[in-house]
Amino acid sequence: MNAPPSAPAEATHDHIARARALIPMLDAAGPRIDAARELPPDVVDAMHNAQMFRLLLPRSVGGAELDPATYVQVVEAIAAGDGSAAWCMNQGSGCSMSAAYLAPQVARRIFGHSRDVLAWGQARGRAQAEKADGGWRVTGTWYFASGSRHCTWLGAHCPGVLADGTPVERTMLFPRAAASIDDVWYVLGLRGTGSDTYSVDNLFVEDDYTLIRDRPELRREDGVLFRFTTMNMYASGFGAVGLGIARGMLDSFVNLASDKTPHQSQAMRDSHVVQALIGRSDTRLKAARGLLIQVLADTYAAVAIRGHLTLDERVAIRQAATFAICEARDVVNALWHEAGATAIFDTQPFERRFRDMNTVSQQVQGRANHLELAGRHLMGMQINTRWI
Question: Are 71 and 132 in a shared domain?
């Protein structure tokens, strides 16, 4: 397949600029996002107006179809304002890549309106999809559906098999109103993601509204972006969420250190410990960010020529994404402790970012065993490809 031309450079820079323009609003809205346990309507409106939920959609249905290296910079900027907003955006963007596996008229039905958002979560227990005339009967419960409170469609992953007996995961798509939503999202951090649990019972889903992701022979879009798997993009995007949260934390810490003089102590700005921490933290974030962007840019260029990702490239994306989360967490925690008692107050810009970052690192994308996987691969050992 021949790849379409990349988006003009000015268009990609425009997306980054629009995301950065949202940072002050998102930062100010952070306490409201946290308290509401979802993105408030004005925040959702602002992100829709900036087209932040359409970045990985095919151009054929009105999406931006951004290259991955540009995309993660947009996510990072949103996360510098608020981690929950960025998490929802990345989750919904990964879900939107399913449009590449749908018939064009179905993709337009689901994503055709500028405010259409698809969300889904993990199956709790064994979800069931039984074949019926013209579709499937679906029963099950799914959880961690980030962004489900402002979505218009939901997806449900169900186990299945192909005609040759190959096990697969089939995703069923249906309007949000068809599901029963259970508000369970009372958590430490990323409270604003509203990652609720949802269920359906014997719901009929037409064949055209089902898909099997990440199988090249089933893909209907030729763009280079869609030769990346949804897992590649989830991993990269959530790595960028961590980097953005940490960058926001560091910027706030620099402001604090410039003005604060602890009780019976020297000014923070004159402390060699503080100066070294700022320099070291900035270096760590730049290094992790640079690695992630470079790996994605190099892979995109290679895939545009070759047509597919290699195992080496898939491992490198996972390695860079998990490294970004780990570095961001360590930076945030070091800054949190050095900020002293100031950091514990809700009115200060540290406490929410501390909780959000340590919630990001608890998620499957931040597991240390992803780096173990990279090590196994580098030694030529067999690896589990589930998370790459």
Answer: no
Please write down the HEC assignment for all residues of 118-165. Answer: EEECEEEEEEEEEEECCEEEEEEEEEEECCCCCCCEEEEEEEEECCCC
End-to-end, the C-alpha distance of the chain in Å comes to 23
237 and 366 both lie in a single domain: yes
Asked if residues 193 and 185 have their Cβ atoms less than 8 Å apart, the reply is yes
Helix, strand, or coil (residue 311): helix
246 vs 81, 193, 353, 383, CA distance in Å? 11, 18, 8, 31
Domain boundary among the residues 179, 213, 247 is at: 213
Q: How many domains does the chain have?
A: 3
pLDDT digits (tens, 9 = 90+) for 11-41: 567 999 999 999 999 999 999 999 999 999 9
Pairing between β-strand 180-182 and β-strand 196-206 as defined by DSSP bridges = antiparallel
pLDDT in tens, 369-378: 999 999 999 9
- Domain of 253 in residue numbering reads as 228-378
* SS3 at position 279: helix
Whether residue 205 is found in the same domain as residue 260: no
Q: Which two tokens stand for residue 350?
A: 């540290």
